[in-house]
Amino acid sequence: MSTAFVEVDRVDLAYDEDSGNAIEDISLSMSEHEFIAIVGPSGCGKSTFMKLCSGLRPPTKGSVVVDSREVAGPLKIVGMAFQNATLLPWRTALDNVLLPLEIVEPYRSTFRTKKEHYAQKAIALLHSVSLQGYEHRFPWELSGGMQQRVSICRALVHEPKLLLLDEPFAALDAFTREELWCILRDLWQQNHFTVVLVTHDLREATFLADTVYVMSKRPGRLLTRRVIDLPRPRELEITYSDHFAEIVRELREHIGRIRST
Amino acid sequence: MAKRKRRLEAWAPWILLTIIVLLWELICRGFRVSDFIFPTPSAILLSLKQYAGPISGHALQTFWTTMAGFVIGVVVGVLLGVLVGSSRLMYTSLYPLMVGFNSIPKAALVPVVVVWFGIGTVPAILTAFVICFFPITVNVATGLATIEPELEDVLRALGASRTDVLLKIGLPRSLPYFFASLKVAITLAFIGSVVSETIASNEGIGYLMMSAGSQMRMPLVFAGLIVISVMAILMYEVFAVFERRMTGWATRGMDAK
């Protein structure tokens, strides 16, 4: 844990020259298997930060180092999931999960010959998010929460080192959301990936993350870093504890201050 | 109840057709309209039977020129659609030109093509092609241009090339648009080939109608019209069946009933 897995060093990113910076002077470091959450008002550049981590956008200034390599293009070791499940409607749940394996090496070149093996792997992953029996259903036959679980499986099937989640539970009802928190928590505890979770939901961030960063209004800057010192493993019960409420309130105050300025 | 309703739905077009034909026959006979002006259905049927040999020969000619033009139209239309739909530069540069070209009445092109290739089959094929590729291009391009950016990001972050994105997402996604456009394109192709035959050909239903008209044999002209529309309806249905088979995922609400 001595060297950082992700090292972002004084990064600015502007989409084009006239529009000004979307994010500004961002510095943070993540160790391997860390779970960080980024919260902030809408339009603050959280999604931009994700594009930065995945290598989809190069920084305008500063540097991003992931896995001790300077990021210069698509990383191939990341998995992504978004607010919309963005599943392909013509593919079954299983085939949707298999999609990344058809793209990324070393799976791509062996996809045809070892398809059976990969399918087993994908099915095991779907089982781990309690989707047994739904492997061969089409996305439109699944509920929103199920679609989102398939989407997370798709983000994980190629065993990425870095999982990027952009408000993945925002479109779900409260109970489904909490259910998926636990599923994500378990997946993260059983596997060795690092997570960046972008969210509006302070309870979500506090429950899941090791470290929460608060981002300011555009141009987005990191204002605070809050280490969540709740013990692990965390059960949903913990969200009703006083300490939990205290942390959420503290984060809320930061957001309130940003909004009022 | 539901079963009866569905059966009625299946028969409805035939019932309506029968009613129209009967009314037509009755009106023509009742007002003693001359066959030279507006022939009765029975007269049309009679001339269909009488000239079955020549009509089927001309129909075959029209059919294959239409299909040839249509196939070229599909190939060119898809290629242009992929080009326009996957590149912004191509979209901004090519699209206005294509809209301009598409607004030229295709009948006006026939004389030009005749100067280049002479009268007959080639102008018919070319006119069918020129008239039918545009809707295909527009639809394929729309399908490609409306990919969710997030979905593209998922694949691009894995190092997917543009071709990967096109093959895995773009083309399957634009299939429903593509098939919808085929149904439009095939009917347009018939219009193209028949128009060309009417202006410059010695073969085909268009020519048949033209020469029958000049001899005032109106029942035969109408017989030609009916043959064209039957062929167009049949081909339309063929592509409708293809569409349902290939892209059931896009119209799932329709089969649920």
Oligomerization state: heterodimer
- The CATH architecture of the largest domain in chain B can be given as Orthogonal Bundle
Low-confidence stretches of chain B: none
At the fold tier of CATH, the topology name of the domain at 1-77 and 202-261 in chain A is Rossmann fold
Q: In the CATH hierarchy, what is the superfamily of the domain at 1-77 and 202-261 in chain A?
A: P-loop containing nucleotide triphosphate hydrolases
SS-based structural class of chain B?
mainly alpha
N-C termini distance of chain A: 38 Å
Level-1 CATH class name of the domain at 1-77 and 202-261 in chain A: Alpha Beta
Description:
The complex is a heterodimer of chains A (261) and B (257). Chain A has 261 residues and is an alpha/beta fold. Helix content of chain A is 34%, strand content 22%. In chain A, helix 7 (202-208) crosses helix 8 (242-260). Chain A starts with 5 loop residues before the first strand and ends with a helix. Chain B has 257 residues and is mainly α. Chain B has 2 domains: 1-33; 39-255, MetI-like (MetI-like fold). The longest helix of chain B is centred in the last third of the chain and has 38 residues, at 162-199. The model of chain B has no long low-confidence stretch (mean pLDDT 89). At the A-B interface, loops of A face helix 7 and helix 8 of B.
